[in-house]
Write a structure and sequence with these properties.
417 residues; alpha/beta; Peroxisomal Thiolase, Chain A, domain 1; 2 domains; ten-stranded mixed sheet; two-stranded antiparallel ribbon; 18% strand; EC 2.3.1.179; 3-oxoacyl-[acyl-carrier-protein] synthase activity; fatty acid biosynthesis; fatty acid metabolism; PKS_Beta-ketoAc_synthase_dom
């Protein structure tokens, strides 16, 4: 069977460093930190008092107050980013076969804010079960693609992938697979997350996963730096329109890049810690390259998972070294989480957008907040520290790893006829 080619024809983003794709990209290449003290709740008694929150997002203005109240923030974010992507792709659904357009979305947790609010209200009450009738439909992780399909009348495959911080990379891979098998013409895909609340920050604090650099939030996310002390929580959404090539050409679509392949693997090691030798991460990178029918020599940039945790960063570098061999010294590596924080289930989509734009514009976003070299890392590796770098980017690989040992990696290249 000959696979169909799949291209990127639209992008949308709501991030801690920009509420549109142009703003997000400008923030990335200029090394802007999205971290600041949390405004959405009182952090007085919390170990971590900062995060990368979405800024100046008005759900009532976007959706109307009545509809906004029916949706958890992770769904609000999904709809917002998707509206930008649909406009960017120039989609007129009245002229398209909506039976062959699907939505595959990623979210690691789903409606955590809704769950928290409802349980707190019940606990404060008199024991009678007075729950909001929208409690369950607001909370469930699959409701985001449901609302997207309802809004645009899309009747193709529709579901959510849940694999912690690999979730939206998995959503991209699933959409890509359906398209190249000819099961659909187009997918709205990506991911969203909204966990900056008492339960989200408190839960990750209890795991000792978050940075506690409360004296300097803006520099707290420092992947590959000697003094990294944990990840910085982020929130937002990223939407990518993936489309079968001939379908895109027939409607005169602009094409950002071609998606070439994706890989998935498991560490089979630990509930939260990565494999100490990076075995699952190396396996998934090799799997993505094989799926794309490419070699490390074809890749110029790896957007790493790079969370800024003491144990996670070294394992990923071991994995890249294993997968790339001597080619690791030729490529650029960077962690855009140094700017956006960790968007968990949305990270893969937002970082895939960074990889796609790096391919399109031939610019590598930096890894900011590097102050002290870690002797654990080979100094010959180009981590793109602190400043963006210009170079021809023929293709880029983007990694996502999640609690439970879930790994997913995607590859995009410059589109050629």
């Amino acid at each position: 069977m000959e696979f169909k080619r799949v291209v990127v024809t639209g992008l949308g983003a709501l991030t801690p460093i920009g509420n549109s794709v142009p703003e997000y990209w400008d923030g990335l290449i200029n090394g802007v930190s999205g971290a600041a003290f949390i405004k959405s709740f009182d952090t007085t008694n919390f170990k971590t008092k900062f995060a990368c929150e979405v800024k100046n997002f008005d759900a009532d203005a976007f959706l109307g107050r009545k509809d906004a109240r029916k949706l958890d923030p992770f769904v609000q974010y999904a709809l917002y980013a998707t509206e930008e992507a649909v406009k960017d792709a120039g989609l007129d659904f009245d002229k398209l076969d909506t039976n062959r357009i699907g939505v595959i979305w990623g979210s690691g947790i789903g409606g955590l804010k809704t769950f928290l609010d409802e349980v707190v209200n019940f606990a404060k009450g008199d024991g009678n079960p007075r729950f909001n009738p929208f409690f369950i439909p607001k909370m469930i992780a699959d409701i985001a693609p449901g609302h997207i399909s309802i809004k645009y009348g899309l009747r193709g495959p529709n579901f959510t992938t849940v694999s912690a911080c690999a979730s939206s990379n998995n959503s991209l891979i699933d959409a890509f697979t359906y398209l190249r098998l000819g099961k659909a013409n187009m997918f709205i895909t990506g991911g969203s997350e909204a966990i900056i609340n008492e339960a989200g920050i408190g839960g990750f604090n209890a795991m000792h996963a978050l940075s506690t650099r409360n004296d300097d939030p803006a520099t707290a996310s420092r992947p590959f730096d000697l003094d990294r002390d944990g990840f910085v929580a982020g929130e937002g959404a990223g939407t990518i329109i993936l489309e079968e090539l001939e379908h895109a050409k027939a409607r005169g679509a602009k094409i950002y890049a071609e998606m070439m392949g994706g890989g998935m693997s498991a560490d089979a090691y630990h509930m939260t810690a990565p494999h100490p030798e990076g075995l699952g991460a190396a396996l998934v990178m090799k799997a993505a390259l094989e799926d794309a029918n490419m070699t490390p020599a074809d890749i110029d940039y790896v957007n790493v998972h790079g969370t800024s945790t003491p144990i996670g960063d070294p394992q990923e570098v071991k994995a890249i070294t294993e997968a790339y061999g001597e080619e690791i010294y030729r490529i650029n590596i960077s962690s855009t989480k140094s700017m956006t924080g960790h968007l968990l289930g949305a990270a893969g989509a937002v970082e895939a957008i960074a990889a796609i734009l790096a391919v399109k514009h031939d610019i590598i976003p930096p890894t900011i907040n590097h102050f002290t070299d870690d002797p654990a890392f080979d100094p010959k590796i180009n981590f793109t520290f602190n400043k963006a770098q210009q170079r021809v980017v023929r293709a880029a690989q983007s990694n996502g790893f999640g609690f439970g040992g879930h790994n997913a990696s995607v590859i995009f290249k410059k589109y050629e006829e």
